Please model this.
Amino acid sequence: MNYDQIKQVSLSYSDREDSDTANMMDSFIYIVEARINRLLDIREMAQRAEMLIVDDSKEYYGLPRCFSGIRSIEVKNPAIPDVRNVARYLSNELMNAHIVSGSREFKYTIQADQFHIYPPPATDCIIEIIYYGDLIHLDGINQSNFMSKTYPDIYVFGLLVEISSYTKDLDAAAGWEQRFMGAISDLKLADQVDRWSGTSLEMKVVR
Model:
């Protein structure tokens, strides 16, 4: 489904035809997308970024735009292409202990809008980040994204929560909230089975 279809279906389900509610739909979409971005970190939301190290004393790097969580960080040395240096996540407290220990194993943590990696990667190495990004916002220009195409029910149920809340129909809002969270849970479970089936789980940090 696309932007126009999702709005129309949501208004039809809510049995609302008034212009006040229709005019609020774009604002409701922003709210629903903000909720989805906070609740989900599924495979389709994963993105990759690389940065070349030009200062081998640097430990702090800015997070990518539209960042909502890190899946993995790897330090690549072009001179040794067969070696994988996967950085493991530590809490801020454990990172301090790691630095004091003098260990040369790569670890990282998140502080404010930066990630802290230690030891600092050498010059000419590459840091590859697999992270979870926010949804492409639906509007009149961006008519669709992977969520609207594959999981349109999440958009529709989320919009119906907002429409019902806006019109003060709290019973309906509670019912649609249950369906929204149920669809979110189903998608999380399906993604977990798809991603981790046959492998051991590893810790990741999310916002």
